[in-house]
Structure formats: C-alpha cells, structure tokens
C-alpha cells in the first residue's frame, strides 16, 4: 500500500492530477443548496387547479388581473385580483401571496382569441383589461419534488457506505472494506525512533536487532542451513516499551515495515477480518523482505472456544484461523517476519504461540535499577535540571515503575518546577512528582480534627518504626500525614531490588504493613478504619505465601495457583478440607506478625512517641529525622549508604531531608 502523507493526498495542490476525495462537507453543501432552491422557487403563492369552463367564467367577470401562458406545457395561469379572491372557496384572507388558478388550454390560437374577447367585454363594462404574459418555462420544480428525495437518499446511502468501509479516507468505496489498514514505513516514510531512543531492555534489544540483521544479511545465516525465524512475540506489562521497540525496528531496518493494530481486523461485517489478514500478507509478500507488526494481538488471537460468546461463531476465531494459515500454511512467506505485542500472553491461542509461527517470545519486563537510570537519562535530555541531580537515587525511588511511568515523572517534575517559577528542575520537584503519581494530589483543605490527626500520626509512626527495626524492612524516605488522594497519610520507601525473596522478607513486609493497626491498639487503646488497605495487602501476601510459594508449615511445597488461567476454570484445585487448612494458615501467619509488631512497638514505645509528636508538629518528616530518633539501622541497604554519602559530600542535609513548607 503506498505511503500516505499530507502532501500527497488526492485533490491537494501537490497532486493535481487526481480527483478530490468525497468529503462529508459535500453532503452538507448539497442539503443547504437544496433548501435554498426550495426557498427560491416557493414564492408563497397558492395555486388552485380549475377546469376550462371555470377559468373562462372568472376571466369574463373580471376576476383575473394577469394571465401567464406557458408555451411548453400548454397551460394558462391566472392571477386573481381582489374580486377574484372572493370567488375561491378557501380562506384567502390568510394568504399572504397571490392566488392563482391554473387550467389546460385547448390551443395557443384559441386562448389568444378568447383573451381578445374577454378584454373587449371588460372594456365595454368599464373594467380594467387583463395583461397577458408569455413564458417558456420548465418543470424543474415538479421534477425536483418528484425525484429530489430519491436522489438525496441515494447520495446519503453512498456516503454512509464509504464511511463504514473506510472509503472516505482511502478510496474504493464499499469494495475496499476487506483491505488492510496497515501503515507502511519504508525508505520514503521513516520514523524518527531508533534503538538509541530505547533505554534499558538490553536483552530484548539484542533479539530485536538480530531480527533486523536477519533481513539485512540473510546469506550469513542461510549459508549454514539455518532458517530465518518467522515471528517474534513481545510480551510484558503495559508501558514497558513494546511498541517503542517496534518503532525502533521501523526506524533502523532498511526494509518495508507494515504496522497494524489487532483491533483493525475487527469489523461489523462478517468475513472482513479474514479478508484484511489476507490482504495484509499479500502486501507483505509483494514487498518482501519486510516486517509486519501487529500491536495488541490479543484482540484477535484469543484462545478459541473460550470467548465470551459462549460457543457462538465468533468473527475473531475466523480471523485467527486465517492468520494461522497465513503465518504457517501451504503458502510461502519467504522474507516476511511477523512481530506482535501483547501484555496478555496467557490468553493467546496455543496454536499461535508454537514454533513456526512465533518462534521467539521476547519478554519485556519492568526496568531494573540500571535500566531506570538509562530511562531517566533519555527523558532528562529535554529538561533543564540542576547539575548535581542524583539520578541513581531517583531510580531507586521509582522501583516498580515502567518506562511510561518514568516519562510521566519527568514531565510532572517539570510542571511542578514551572508552577513554582524555578529556572531548573530540582530533586525536590521529582520527589513531588513521584508523590503526586503514587499517592495523588495533596488535599490540605480537607478538614481533619486534632483527634484524627493524632490517630493518623500514631498509625504512620508505627509503620516507620517497624520497617526501621526489621531486617528486610524497606529503606524509609519520608513519612507524611498530609492527605493525598484517598489516603490520609503515607510512608514512602525506596525498596531494594531482589530477584529471590526469602520467607523472612515476606514476613517482615507483613509485619510492617500491620504496624499501623498495631500502633493504634497499643498506644490509643482502640483501632480505626484507616488500615483497610494495609490489611488487604497483608492478606494477599499471606495467601500467596501459602498457596503459591509453599512456605506454610502444614502445606509445604505445594502450589495451587494456575499461572495460565486456563486449567481450573470454575473449580478449585483443592478439597474443602485443604481450603479450611489454607484459611487457618493464613490467619495464623497474620496473627503471628501482628503480635510481633505489637511486641516491637512496646519495646520502642518512647522512640515511636517521639516520631508521632514530630509528625503532629511538622506533618512531614524524612529519613534523617527518623534516624536521629531510632539511631542507625542495624541492616544497612544500598539506599542507606547513598543517603549517608550524600550527607557527607554536601555537608548539609540532602534536599529530601528538609521539611516541606
């Protein structure tokens, strides 16, 4: 399919040889012209059809002031005067225009003689003679009324057909409904994205670059008898850069690149999806060697027989069957490599994932620490930041963020700096952006009583104390009791990246989550509703510990979780007795960590109360404030070392240890 650009559209000055496209404004213009024509031909007069005898009677009695003779239609039209208006049996007083009588004339010679006789009679009676006008008219008005609605209906049907089939933008009318909507990138229409713009994802880029190399130098591999892979599937969470990798392939490869979304195959007409698949691969074969990229392939690649239509003939299944045939059927697709992207690989049909169709599955995971640092460097190119910005600490603070999240952090930081009339973007602006994205906008206008403020401070001080005193507690960054979003308070951490999580790390995490509720019970004597989110997260971890990781004493080394989501359906993979044991184990683990949290808080009650009172006074405290009260952590992490190094090099507290104003 030829590339489209703004300078090469039909009907534009850059391409005068082709006819202009059908536009929806043409329909509007036609309707307006029709209304104007009706207004022009409708002069407000009333016409009454009479026979020749009645017409002759009105003319002889002086009721007609003017006679208009149409030579083409051979009829006569008489305009009535005041006397004649009273002879018509209608309410002529309500008529604003002329009252006309129309009759068929015997012949032109007869009407001429009759007019002379009528005028002579009127003259002898002292009345004003009639004026005579001859005109050569047409039946345009009658034809318009007869055939105009049908013409407008046909034009409207053609217009709607072109719109539904996409012909309004690409030509071809209703017959182009089966054409693919793939966007072509070639040497004349390249993207500006290259592999330099893709930060991190080192392993994924290696495999993608190898696919590009297959097409550039195929002899290097075929000489050894190797076969070029037919497809690669990019799998990963949203925002990790799957589509960006495909754009980089389009920018780097010197071969045509056809890009299409999975939803483009789905249409209201039966069989359109399969037709578009055939047309897509037909174009790819004509331009081979080339790359075909299908974004969000799960829209049409969902497992057959498990669609929401409960067994009905789904159009998506027909589209998938045609795609399977095109990718690995009797036909040959030499030189055509198919790339696809999805974040729901567990829902794809197994026939689509087998070797020969998608030979490789490239997992694009959330970025690690070094990857996040590279992503920050890419997005910081266009920002005016302070020279001593600690990018490593920013990367540690954004663990679990995708590439899209980091781009949003950089943009929000620039917006915050501009809102505060700063010349450069500082570290505090990035921290404010992270707080805004994770927790929401500050709501200082929310009315909170002194009792609620004291309860929130007690709760958050409990989190800070427990995480500081446990081995695998995440390094604390700051604690706040300023409401953000739906939360009344929050404790921010910089989690350490771990590939394997030991049992004690999960238990310490649960203990830290339950610390807020435990602090309320120990120091206030009553509990509140503020720990609902903590309890939900704690329960999920406890159930995962028992059901997924096999870390329970009564159910060791058992995993009841189905990662594919396709095996168990509506049935449980365990008995009722096992379900009871699971519930007992989850409750036991949570209760043990809750009692552990209360024990630690009673041991460090004085330090907890100091943190609580400082929170009530300042509303926001930081890492150094907690360290001054609780002392240095026994188990130091890399984040603690970086914070200590920043303080020693600067000689003053780092930006994030200064209380917010």
Beta-strand content bin: 5-15%
Q: List low-confidence stretches.
A: 1-20, 166-175, 652-661
Structural class: alpha/beta
Q: Separation of termini?
A: 59 Å
Share of helical residues? 40-55%
Report on the biggest sheet.
6 strands, mixed
Rounded radius of gyration (Å): 41 Å
> Order of strands across the widest beta sheet?
6-8-9-10-7-11
| Count of helix runs | 23
The count of DSSP E runs of length 2 or more, i.e. the number of strands, is 14
Describe the structure.
With 661 residues, this protein is of the alpha/beta class. The protein is 47% helix and 11% strand. The protein has a 6-stranded mixed sheet. Strands 1-4-3-2-5 form a 5-stranded mixed sheet. Strands 13-12-14 form a 3-stranded antiparallel sheet. The two termini are 59 Å apart. Mean pLDDT is 78; it is low at 1-20, 166-175 and 652-661.
Output the keywords.
single chain; 661 residues; alpha/beta; 6-stranded mixed sheet; 5-stranded mixed sheet; 14 strands; 47% helix; 11% strand; elongated; disordered C terminus
Write the layout of secondary structure elements.
Blueprint: H1 24-41, E1 46-49, H2 52-60, E2 64-70, E3 75-80, H3 82-85, E4 99-104, H4 108-124, E5 131-135, H5 140-165, H6 167-170, E6 183-185, H7 202-216, H8 219-222, E7 231-235, H9 242-252, E8 257-261, H10 272-286, E9 290-295, H11 315-327, E10 336-342, H12 350-353, E11 360-363, H13 369-379, H14 391-397, H15 403-419, H16 427-439, H17 450-469, E12 476-480, E13 490-493, H18 503-524, H19 532-547, H20 576-603, H21 605-618, E14 620-622, H22 623-630, H23 638-650
Parallel strand pairs: 1-4, 2-5, 7-10, 7-11, 8-9, 9-10
Antiparallel strand pairs: 2-3, 3-4, 6-8, 12-13, 12-14
Helix pairs in contact: 1-5, 10-11, 13-14, 13-15, 15-16, 17-18, 17-21, 18-19, 18-20, 19-20
